[in-house]
Design goal:
Elements: E1 5-16, E2 19-31, E3 36-40, H1 47-55, E4 62-71, E5 74-75, H2 81-87, E6 92-96, H3 99-102, H4 109-120, H5 125-138, H6 144-148, H7 157-169, E7 175-179, H8 187-204, E8 207-212, H9 215-221, E9 224-229, E10 232-238, H10 239-244, H11 249-256, H12 296-300, E11 307-310, E12 313-315
Parallel strand pairs: 3-8, 3-9, 6-7, 7-8
Antiparallel strand pairs: 1-2, 1-4, 4-5, 9-10, 10-12, 11-12
The structure holds adenosine-5'-diphosphate and magnesium ion.
Magnesium ion (MG) binds at residues 47-48, 179-180.
């Protein structure tokens, strides 16, 4: 089976009054069928820019300036707007953090959910309504019928998040991109939503590209992990090697900021130093100013590409962390 998603050397930029923000700087990743791939990194790393680029939903001042995004083998960067519209909501969908604002305030949940189905299938309104109720039930909504007639402002953040997930999953897409979907809900609800998401993706055979700044979410969900820093994926590996033998000093540093993985409060604490300015980027590795292992080579040579450290374990570093 070819991968669901293959991103090759992707670049995304935003025009701003004082220059250009280099939000994604040569990201490559491969997402296999039915896999949960987590992209993790601090705020401002370019995670949402990556997600929006894949969906073809960058704002007007943003653009893909290089690379390819192959979805089922078709390059989305050069695909027509019409083709992207057909894919969105049906074959691939996106859920992001601020669910409440993404819902239309003047339509009921039911109207909005059934609209997705009617647009992408030949079901009539009644049948579509049934499918929606079923989906809400699967996501753990106790009274789906009542939920269908509710307006978004009457729902809690967690309920809105479930509705957004139902909307994203109702067509059983090949790929779901979930961008910080549990960041605004409490820990218990987060665990439940993630569990449902895992079940649903298994049942509907959807691959999930899960974007988060929370290593706890990564530990819960990921099969493969990509660690993002300043628009670069600096390390890619399966879940356990990322936690047990991280090779990039940034990944290593991130893990040092965690108190204990099984303890509460697993949000990433700030590392020492500040993330780099993405307007005036340099050729060198962006982590050098904060890196505990930087060599003079790191300041002189262009940032290294990903190289394979162990089987299926890649890191972009001249002086990776070693283990005995
Ligand atoms: N619409 C935009 N216009 C200008 N700059 C943007 C825009 N969206 C994001 N950026 C900038 O791009 C960089 C990456 O942002 P983003 O992808 O949102 O990061 P993350 O999701 O990892 O927090 C940041 O420097 C951010 O300020
Ligand atoms: Mg973001």
């Amino acid at each position: 089976m070819p991968p669901v998603l293959e991103i090759q050397d992707l670049r995304v930029e935003f025009r701003v009054p004082n220059g250009v923000v280099h939000a994604v700087n040569g990201v490559s990743l491969t997402q296999e069928e039915e896999e949960v791939f987590c992209v993790v990194g601090e705020s401002g790393a370019g995670k949402s820019a990556l997600a929006l680029a894949v969906m073809g939903l960058l704002p007007d001042n943003g653009a893909v300036t290089g690379g390819r995004i192959l979805f089922d083998g078709v390059d989305l960067v050069t695909a027509s707007a019409e083709h992207l519209r057909q894919l969105r909501g049906k074959s691939m969908s996106l859920v992001f953090q601020d669910a409440q604002s993404a819902l239309n305030p003047v339509q009921t949940i039911g109207q909005q959910l059934t609209e997705v189905i009617i647009t992408h299938s030949n079901l009539n309104r009644r049948a579509a309504g049934g499918v929606c109720q079923e989906m809400l039930r699967e996501l753990g909504v106790p009274d789906p019928r009542r939920m269908m007639s509710a307006y978004p402002f009457t729902l809690s953040g967690g309920q809105c998040q479930r509705v957004m997930l139902a909307m994203a999953l109702v067509m059983r897409p090949r790929l779901l991109i979930a961008d910080e979907v549990t960041s605004s809900v409490d820990v218990t609800l987060q665990a439940e939503i993630l569990e449902r998401l895992k079940e649903l993706s298994r049942d509907s055979k959807s691959a999930i590209l899960l974007i988060t700044h929370d290593m706890g979410v990564v530990a819960n969900m990921a099969r493969r992990v990509g660690v993002m820093y300043a628009g670069h994926l600096v390390e890619i590996a399966d879940l356990l090697p990322i936690f047990q033998q991280p090779r990039h000093p940034y990944t290593w540093s991130l893990l040092q900021t965690l108190p204990r993985l099984d303890a509460a409060g697993r949000r990433l604490q700030a590392l020492r130093g500040t993330p780099p300015d993405l307007i005036n980027i340099s050729e060198q590795c962006p982590f050098v100013p904060r890196c505990p292992k930087a060599l003079s080579r790191c300041r002189e040579e262009p940032t290294p590409g990903l190289s394979e450290m162990e089987e299926r374990h890649w890191a972009a570093c001249y002086n990776p962390v070693e283990y005995p």
